[in-house]
């Protein structure tokens, strides 16, 4: 038989030798399972417990004999069973295996390999055979060559702390001793004990052998002293034990090995200064080690130096670093501490030992927030075990938390959750959970956790004991041979204790049952991703543990089951031990029942065999010869599942075979099935194609990754705790990066665009803005410690605001770095339950007031945000808090948020807004559009620096108009900064350093202390710039990479966008490694966050961003920041690459949200790239529109409004196309049209301004009335008709009321400028009616007063002006910004008094304006407002003949306006006041200056307004001085410098101001015609002025055009027809004036049409042509019907009834229905009017009273026809049950194609259907279908 074995082995491998055969036989014997033990003979019931003697041989490993400890207390519920205990219960002896105390022993031995270096002992010689042979060959003389003997270098003395807390580590030390002895590197390995609590500690080996510590000193330096201690005992807080270590270290290489996690060391006696230690020669004593020393720790001359002491944990990495350092093989050194020769320890260090222990809840919460993931997992698994044997605790660690290190177990044992219950040796020691801990932990233990514990304990109880021995336990057995005492609990009770929590109970062997315990009080579990943050999809799990033909794999099925349980959001039951037919049927169902997108995770765990080049996955009934599932088959089934994100995981031997083929298979199928959609596939295998996989190893790693997250810092950065999901690519990469086993090596390949799909265990809901959180803590630390110090009064004041319950806006301000964010962040932290618990657990009391838990509803850091983004972030938090309902669409803009909050009742919610000044160009918009408006309904607390508008205006704090301000610059924070520095640097820091740091702002102190702690503080500079430069010098690529982050918007750049921008700006290439280096060295300067499901990065401090890139100051010549175009182009290029790779542009991410904003802030050239992308995919049309709007806004802000017109026209076209399908763009369209009208007006193109201004009003009215719309372009007549409606019906939405009022005011101004006074007046009245209060109403009232004044309604004008004054006065009481408007209103009121002859009242109003103007001047930074006020005051004084006062005010206004937008106006006003004061020469000089100012590029808008007025005034002044040549010279200069429409306008105005028949006028007009261009309004005006001069004298032109000689009467008639207000008036006028249809009227009509826009003129001309050919009635019929359709759309339900009664036939005309077909609700009503008028009456009732809607639908469901019911539902949309009643109509019509609701909506459907079932019995089938499982 042996021969056959040898032949077989040699056939397998030619390298088999005798030793290998022996090893194989030994291993086979060792792996053979123990034979069954024959049952022992029965023992009488009263017999004592005796060890059972097996009939067969005992296992190979000897068990240590049981010792006889003291009996435990009767309250102990678990204890080892002893031989001499008797009692009344029967049981049988069993063995419970225990876990290994020291994991990774092989890796530890490898880490210590440097000690295998041999020592050359020159005192001993030995024969060198090789040297002797070489000498003989060289000399032919055989002479023995002796060399120094090579021998093992060190004797090792392991000194173990003998205190009680170290009893739990005896097994660990024993295994460590075994490793040291087995590795063959040391001469001797001895073990000693030392008691640190003794006054004079002694070394003990046995009870008889004791030595003084100095015995271990070795002058030969060939000894290693390894001190093993957790440093928890009281002695480590005293000097004596440290003196022993210093004595050893001065002569011997000494190491302190602390088994606790490193983060816990500072909580023990090991609280010494840390340093990096380096060795100069192997084995040198500690005194020879080199180390870096902070200036804060330097000794005074003459003092003994610090003594370094290496300190390591039980991790392989730290031991390896120490070993290499000790043998001088690693110049980087190892970690250690510095021991002072002077005893600095005092009794105060022991004060914590006398404190009262915290309660169970505090203990658990503190541990949960600070513990490592594996440690927390161990504790949760022990939740229902009140008393535990320590060895069972190790068993839980090894088997159930295999990723846990000994340090994690140490963290558990020293957590304070346990106390010693009994015993002091490893065989005896038991621990018990403290009071209240078990109840708290049980809330975190899931049913899966409990089942896992039960199964593991049951399985291992039946298995053979490990090599380390077993704990004797008793299983209840009535026929057993042992009698078990009732008060003892066998060790197997742990399984039963866990099983008690399960229903139904599992059926393991009967064990002791305890009486039921009271249920613990329930506590909220730790946060987990909510349903809306989970990827929807399917889990396919196949685990084969039991095989019919091959050996079993115990872990395979459980690995799959437990992994699937961790995939929250993915559904699917795994298959356990299936046959091949079962697997094929299951996998084929993926194709036959495909999913609609989402994710698919498929895990196979079992055997696999490569056969004929194909990897076959074996089912239960396979043997692998010719059967099994081929890997590419499995991949093909997964690819055809319909999932967009597919992750395939194979845990099997040789699984790396065909890995690339599997990926190609999935990619090919996805390309075919999912073309044009984003998709991804990844394949992760357990090993390579030539490796076997160990059962359970790979599965455990998968679970650990999904339970605790990644290990490496690189992956932790990317698995942001703000991201609920991670993508499959990140998952695979993290597994490979964390792999630490040499047994097998996994492989991973991927394809496509990975999207988030797997739950992120690091995720924590972002309840606190991370910037605020870090600022409040005063630094970043692994355990989340807070160093917030002092500032009690400041915090109390902010807390007072929070708790006041009073709405309004409060501000915390101060210079950069004064701690604004820290202050408000502290209050936010104490409001958040999680951070609040962390601060409580830290045990540091605070003196300031507590704001209370959940006292703050929303907090946001608005750096780089726009207004709508900030509003959406606030809205989401308010929705989460249940304060407001969720939005109908994906987001909520500022106007909508204000509208929702206006309807909120109850106490005002508290909102904290940080970094308002850091929002770049959006700061003032956020302040005025969002914050000041929501402050009416909320308590808004804003932290911001003061900021100023670049174009002038009120500063930021003034715009905010806070009710209270906290200025941190006024606080003396030196004491607080000092406390902060001492808290972070400790008491050993040099006083001079503290003094320097205490003088700095908080931010600078933070940065400098970070650097002192990081590198010892060498060469620290006490300034922020130096601190930043030191940080940047750490990594060469830091500056370009971090500069790139300054360009990010929102929460920051994702990694790919970060790299793209950095490379574009620096013209260098960067990789992921460069980012890793920056994050590793400058991590505190980079804030990791999440947005759109991706991990993003931005700079922590705005001050750092300003240091890297100076803030850009735009101007008229340079509107867009340099570099912005490079950034935009780089991002657009990245966008293009992704789209070309098949990634749709609407995939959530940074580019989708912010690419348009980068293009908009870079200018028109960057916008071209976005247009090219939109040609590839039209879903980017909104992005073009948004970017174009941004470009236009930037251009208009800097006086380049004419250039802003083209991008606004483009934006309007895109939004118009989008509105019918995406109504949210209606507000965007209205805004763009409003802006377009303003830009046309500013450019003097008044006729072109009318159409967009009118349409803007229509669109805002649709928003306010919430009426459906198609956003089609409307002609002037249809716009005028719709604008004429001054009321909106019942469902009015106040959100956009102020916008509507503003648009009406601006339209009124345009009408007035076109002399359309009647329309201007009615529009102004509409503007007043649209709003109820506030600044919009005040502005509307001023507008109405002006329109009344223009139309001769003088008394009403005065009354309206008085109301405007009152409104502005009320506003100015809370916001000084309104003071300048108040001055303007008083001036207008003074003018009204003058027109009514009330001189005294006019004088009083003027005096009040002067007084307020003086008040305005006392407010800082109000120069622009003061200039406006002074200008208005000057006009007011002139009206009441106070010439001198008017002149003084005019001078003040001119001085204040210098360099501003109103400088030219102020100079013109000054010229007029100087003229009135009879100072013509001064007026002449001022006038010439005014002309030059108007010609400046930034004052282009003044060329057609202020400049002509200044020239006319200059003409009168020069005439009075008899110097007319001055004016002519000015005109010559103008005509030589200007061209185009501007020159045409000036010449036209000059001709208009000249007397009729002026001989120079024809020349001016002729020249104007050559420059007028395509402006129809300009042509109209030039022609009209020319006709006036033509009629008054001879005309010098060579030819006379027909427009000059047109019949004047016919022209007036044509104009009356063209400008009729409605189609009906236009038709009636044309019927009464048929002469307009003759050819003789062509010229008159053409001239009249010049007064209309080009589009309107073309439409009117088209109607005239149709009238000429088909008659007037036929020409106007479609237009009148379209007008009727508009009226019906805008009408109230009552008006609709009236229209149906009076104009039914017209409404039912086919052209009307065609006109409204895109308005589904109105179209449905007209269909009902035609066929089901009774149903329509009910629908109109429901529209009048929405509360009746449900009742009406219930009545119609059984009575109306299915078609009528469908139309009624459509007419009443939106309604919560609209989809249900459409389904009811389908059921009644016999249509089985029903669209069922989501699972969470089905119950509501079923409830509603129960009302309908009696009258519609056919609905029973629908109810059954809804009740079936989804």
Give your account of this protein's structure.
By secondary structure, this protein is α/β, with parallel strands linked by helices. Among the domains are: 105-117 and 153-294 and 303-346, 3-Layer(aba) Sandwich (Rossmann fold), CATH 3.40.50; 355-499; 531-759, Rossmann fold (3-Layer(aba) Sandwich); 777-971, Rossmann fold (3-Layer(aba) Sandwich); 1615-1676, no CATH class; 1731-1827, no CATH class. It is built from 77 helices and 37 strands. The strands form nine sheets. Strands 7-6-5-4-8-9-12-13-10-11 form a ten-stranded mixed beta sheet, sandwiched between helices. Strands 19, 20, 21, 22, 26, 27 and 29 form a seven-stranded mixed beta sheet that branches. A five-stranded parallel beta sheet has the order 32-33-34-31-35, sandwiched between helices. Helix 9 (360-370) packs across helix 26 (833-842), helix 39 (1124-1140) packs antiparallel against helix 40 (1150-1160) and helix 41 packs antiparallel against helix 42 (1181-1197).
Concise account of the structure shown:
By secondary structure, the protein is of the alpha/beta class.
Beta fraction of the residues?
Answer: 5-15%
Q: Please bin the fraction of helical residues.
A: 40-55%
Can you tell me the CATH architecture of the domain at 531-759?
3-Layer(aba) Sandwich
Largest sheet report: 10 strands, mixed
Question: Which CATH top level class of the domain at 531-759 fits?
Answer: Alpha Beta
Give the strand line-up of the largest sheet.
Answer: 7-6-5-4-8-9-12-13-10-11
Q: What is the radius of gyration computed over CA atoms, rounded to a whole number of angstroms?
A: 44 Å
Helix and strand content put the structural class at alpha/beta
Mean pLDDT: 79
Count of separate DSSP helical elements: 77
């Amino acid at each position: 038989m042996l021969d056959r074995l040898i032949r077989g082995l040699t056939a397998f491998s030619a390298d088999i030798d005798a030793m290998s055969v022996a090893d194989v036989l030994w291993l086979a014997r060792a792996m053979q399972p123990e034979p069954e033990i024959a049952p022992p003979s029965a023992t009488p019931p009263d017999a004592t417990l005796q060890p059972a003697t097996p009939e067969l041989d005992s296992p190979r490993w000897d068990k240590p004999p049981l010792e006889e400890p003291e009996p435990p207390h009767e309250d102990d519920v678990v204890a080892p069973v002893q031989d001499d205990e008797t009692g009344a219960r029967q049981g049988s002896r069993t063995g419970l295996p225990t876990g290994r105390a020291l994991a990774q022993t092989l890796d530890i031995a490898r880490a210590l390999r440097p000690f295998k270096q041999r020592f050359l002992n020159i005192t001993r010689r030995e024969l060198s055979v090789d040297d002797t042979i070489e000498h003989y060959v060289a000399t032919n003389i055989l002479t023995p060559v002796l060399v120094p003997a090579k021998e093992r270098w060190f004797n090792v003395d392991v000194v173990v702390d003998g205190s009680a807390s170290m009893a739990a580590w005896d097994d660990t030390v024993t295994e460590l001793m075994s490793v040291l002895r087995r590795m063959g590197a040391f001469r001797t390995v001895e073990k000693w004990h030392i008691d640190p609590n003794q006054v004079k500690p002694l070394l003990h080996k046995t009870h008889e052998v004791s030595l003084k510590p100095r015995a271990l000193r070795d002058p030969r330096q060939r000894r290693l002293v390894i001190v093993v201690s957790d440093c928890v005992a009281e002695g480590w807080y005293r000097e004596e034990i440290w003196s022993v270590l210093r004595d050893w270290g001065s002569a011997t290489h000494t190491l302190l090995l602390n088994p606790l996690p490193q983060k816990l060391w500072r909580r023990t006696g090991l609280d010494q200064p840390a340093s990096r230690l380096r060795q100069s020669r192997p084995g040198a004593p500690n005194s020879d080690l080199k180390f870096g020393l902070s200036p804060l720790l330097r000794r005074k001359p003459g003092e003994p130096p610090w003594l370094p002491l290496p300190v390591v944990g039980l991790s392989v990495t730290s031991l390896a670093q120490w070993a290499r350092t000790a043998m001088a093989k690693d110049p980087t050194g190892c970690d250690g501490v510095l021991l002072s020769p002077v005893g600095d320890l005092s009794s105060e260090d022991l004060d914590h030992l006398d404190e009262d222990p915290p309660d169970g809840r505090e203990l658990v919460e503190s541990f949960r927030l600070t513990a490592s993931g594996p440690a927390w997992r161990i504790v949760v698994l022990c939740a229902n075990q009140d008393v535990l044997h320590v060895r069972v605790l190790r068993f839980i660690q090894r088997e159930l938390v295999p990723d846990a290190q000994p340090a994690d177990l140490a963290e558990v044992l020293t957590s304070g959750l346990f106390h010693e219950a009994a015993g002091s040796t490893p065989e005896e020691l038991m621990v018990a959970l403290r009071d209240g801990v078990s109840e708290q932990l049980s809330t975190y233990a899931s049913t899966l956790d409990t089942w896992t514990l039960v199964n593991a304990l049951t399985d291992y109880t039946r298995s053979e004991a490990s090599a380390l021995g077993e704990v004797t336990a008793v299983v209840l057995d009535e026929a057993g041979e042992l009698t078990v005492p009732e008060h003892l609990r066998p060790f197997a009770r742990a399984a039963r204790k866990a099983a008690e929590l399960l229903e139904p109970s599992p059926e393991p062997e009967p064990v002791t049952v305890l009486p039921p315990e009271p249920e613990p009080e329930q506590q909220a579990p730790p946060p987990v991703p909510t349903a809306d943050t989970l990827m929807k999809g399917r889990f396919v799990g196949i685990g084969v543990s039991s095989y019919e033909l091959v050996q079993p794999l115990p872990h395979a099925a459980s690995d799959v089951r437990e992994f699937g349980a961790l995939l929250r959001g993915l559904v699917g039951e795994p298959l356990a031990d299936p046959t091949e037919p079962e697997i094929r049927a299951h996998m084929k169902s993926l194709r036959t029942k495909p999913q609609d997108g989402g994710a698919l995770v498929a895990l196979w765990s079992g055997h696999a065999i490569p056969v004929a080049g194909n990897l076959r996955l074996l089912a239960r009934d396979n043997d692998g010869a010719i059967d099994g599932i081929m890997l590419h088959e499995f991949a093909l089934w997964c690819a055809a599942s319909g999932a967009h994100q597919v992750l395939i995981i194979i845990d099997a031997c040789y699984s790396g075979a065909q890995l690339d083929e599997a990926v190609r298979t999935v990619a090919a199928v996805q390309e075919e099935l999912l073309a044009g959609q984003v998709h991804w596939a990844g394949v992760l295998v357990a090993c390579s194609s030539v490796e076997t996989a160990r059962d359970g190893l790979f599965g455990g790693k998968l679970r650990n990754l999904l339970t605790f997250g990644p290990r490496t810092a690189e992956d932790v950065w990317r698995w942001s705790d703000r991201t609920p999901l991670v993508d499959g690519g990140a998952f695979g990469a993290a597994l490979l990066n964390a792999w630490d086993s040499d047994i097998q090596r996994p492989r991973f390949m991927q394809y496509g665009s990975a999207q988030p799909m797997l739950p992120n265990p690091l995720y924590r809901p972002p309840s606190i803005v991370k910037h605020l959180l870090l600022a409040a803590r005063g630094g970043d630390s692994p355990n989340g410690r807070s160093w917030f110090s002092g500032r009690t009064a400041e915090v109390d004041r902010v807390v007072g605001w929070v708790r006041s319950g009073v709405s309004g806006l409060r501000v915390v301000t101060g210079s950069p770095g004064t701690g604004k964010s820290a202050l408000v962040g502290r209050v936010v932290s104490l409001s958040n339950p999680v951070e609040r618990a962390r601060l409580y657990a830290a045990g540091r009391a605070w003196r300031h007031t507590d704001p209370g838990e959940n006292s703050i509803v929303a907090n946001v850091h608005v750096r780089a945000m726009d207004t709508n983004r900030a509003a959406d972030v606030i809205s989401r938090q308010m929705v989460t808090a249940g304060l407001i309902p969720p939005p109908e669409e994906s987001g909520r803009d500022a106007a909508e948020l204000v509208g929702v909050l206006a309807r909120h009742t109850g106490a005002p919610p508290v909102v904290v807004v940080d970094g308002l000044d850091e929002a770049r160009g959006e700061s003032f918009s956020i302040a005025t559009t969002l914050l000041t408006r929501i402050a009416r309904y909320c308590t808004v607390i804003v932290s911001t620096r003061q900021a100023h508008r670049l174009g002038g205006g009120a500063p930021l704090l003034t715009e905010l108009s806070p009710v209270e301000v906290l200025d941190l610059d006024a606080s003396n924070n030196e004491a607080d900064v000092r406390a902060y520095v001492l808290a972070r640097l400790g008491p050993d820091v040099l006083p001079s350093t503290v003094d320097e740091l205490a003088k700095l702002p908080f931010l600078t102190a933070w940065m400098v202390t970070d650097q002192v702690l990081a590198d010892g503080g060498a060469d620290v500079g006490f300034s922020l710039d130096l601190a930043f430069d030191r940080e940047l010098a750490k990594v060469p690529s830091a500056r370009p990479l971090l500069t790139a982050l300054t360009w990010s918007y929102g929460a920051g750049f994702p990694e790919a966008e970060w790299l793209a921008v950095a490379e574009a700006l620096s013209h260098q290439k960067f990789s992921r490694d460069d980012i890793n280096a920056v994050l590793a060295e400058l991590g505190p300067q980079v804030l990791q966050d999440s947005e759109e499901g991706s991990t993003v990065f931005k700079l922590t401090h705005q001050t750092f961003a300003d240091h890297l890139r100076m803030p850009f100051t735009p101007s008229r010549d340079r509107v867009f920041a340099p570099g912005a175009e490079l950034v935009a182009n780089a991002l657009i290029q990245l966008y293009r690459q992704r789209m070309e790779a098949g990634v749709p542009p609407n995939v959530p991410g940074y580019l989708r949200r912010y690419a348009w904003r980068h293009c908009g802030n870079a200018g028109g050239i960057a916008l071209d790239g976005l247009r090219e992308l939109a040609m590839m995919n039209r879903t980017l049309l909104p992005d073009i529109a948004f970017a174009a709007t941004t470009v236009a806004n930037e251009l208009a802000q800097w006086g380049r409004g004419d250039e802003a017109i083209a991008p606004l026209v483009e934006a309007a076209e895109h939004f118009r196309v989008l509105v019918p399908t995406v109504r949210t763009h209606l507000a965007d369209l209205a805004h763009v049209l409003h802006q377009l009208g303003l830009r046309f007006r500013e450019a003097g193109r008044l006729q072109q301004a009318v159409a967009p201004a009118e349409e803007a009003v229509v669109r805002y009215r649709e928003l306010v009335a919430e009426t459906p719309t198609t956003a089609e372009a409307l002609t002037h007549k249809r716009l005028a008709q719709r604008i004429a409606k001054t009321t909106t019906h019942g469902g009015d939405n106040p959100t956009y009321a102020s916008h509507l009022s503003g648009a009406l005011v601006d339209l009124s101004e345009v009408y007035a400028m076109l002399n359309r006074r009647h329309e201007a007046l009615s529009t102004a009245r509409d503007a007043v009616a649209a709003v109820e209060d506030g600044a919009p109403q005040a502005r509307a009232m001023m507008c109405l007063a002006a329109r009344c004044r223009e139309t001769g309604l003088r008394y009403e004008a005065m009354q309206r002006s008085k109301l405007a004054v009152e409104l502005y006065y009320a506003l100015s009481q809370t916001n000084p910004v309104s003071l300048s408007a108040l001055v303007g209103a008083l001036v207008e009121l003074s003018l009204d008094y003058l027109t009514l002859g009330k001189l005294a009242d006019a004088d009083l109003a003027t005096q009040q304006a002067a007084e307020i103007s003086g008040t305005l001047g006392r407010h800082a930074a109000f120069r622009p407002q003061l200039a406006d006020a002074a200008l208005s005051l000057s006009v007011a004084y002139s009206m009441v003949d106070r010439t001198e006062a008017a002149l003084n005010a005019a001078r003040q206004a001119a001085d204040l306006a210098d360099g501003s937008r109103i400088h030219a106006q102020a100079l013109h006003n000054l010229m007029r006041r100087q003229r009135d004061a009879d100072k013509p020469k001064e007026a002449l000089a001022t006038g010439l200056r005014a002309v030059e100012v108007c010609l400046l590029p930034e004052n282009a808008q003044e060329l057609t307004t202020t400049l002509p007025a200044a020239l006319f005034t200059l003409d009168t002044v020069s005439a009075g001085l008899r110097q007319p040549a001055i004016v002519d010279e000015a005109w010559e200069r103008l005509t030589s410098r200007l061209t185009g429409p501007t020159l045409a306008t000036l010449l036209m105005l000059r001709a208009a101001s000249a007397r009729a028949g002026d001989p120079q006028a024809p020349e001016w007009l002729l020249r104007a015609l050559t420059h007028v261009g395509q402006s129809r309004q300009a042509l109209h005006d030039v022609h009209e002025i020319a006709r006036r001069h033509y009629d008054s004298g001879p005309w010098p032109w060579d030819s006379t055009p027909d427009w000059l000689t047109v019949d004047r009467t016919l022209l007036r008639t044509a104009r009356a027809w063209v400008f009729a207000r409605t189609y009906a008036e236009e038709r009636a006028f044309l019927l009464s004036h048929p002469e307009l249809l003759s050819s003789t009227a062509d010229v008159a009509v053409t001239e009249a049409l010049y007064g209309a826009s080009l589009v309107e003129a073309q439409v009117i001309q088209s109607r005239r042509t149709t009238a000429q050919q088909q008659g007037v009635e036929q020409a106007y019929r479609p237009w009148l019907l379209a007008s009727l359709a508009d009226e019906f759309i805008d009408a109230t339900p009552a008006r609709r009834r009236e229209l149906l009664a009076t104009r039914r036939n017209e409404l039912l005309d086919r052209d009307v229905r065609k006109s409204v077909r895109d308005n589904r609700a109105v179209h449905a009503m007209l269909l009902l009017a035609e066929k089901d008028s009774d149903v329509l009456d009910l629908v109109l009732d429901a529209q009048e009273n929405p509360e009746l809607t449900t009742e009406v639908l219930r009545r119609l469901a059984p009575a109306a026809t299915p078609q009528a019911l469908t139309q009624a539902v459509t007419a009443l949309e939106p309604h919560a049950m609209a989809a249900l009643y459409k389904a009811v109509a389908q059921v009644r019509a016999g249509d089985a194609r029903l669209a069922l609701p989501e699972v969470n909506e089905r119950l509501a459907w079923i409830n509603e259907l129960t009302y309908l079932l009696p009258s519609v019995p056919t609905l029973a089938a629908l109810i059954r279908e809804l009740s079936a499982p989804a």
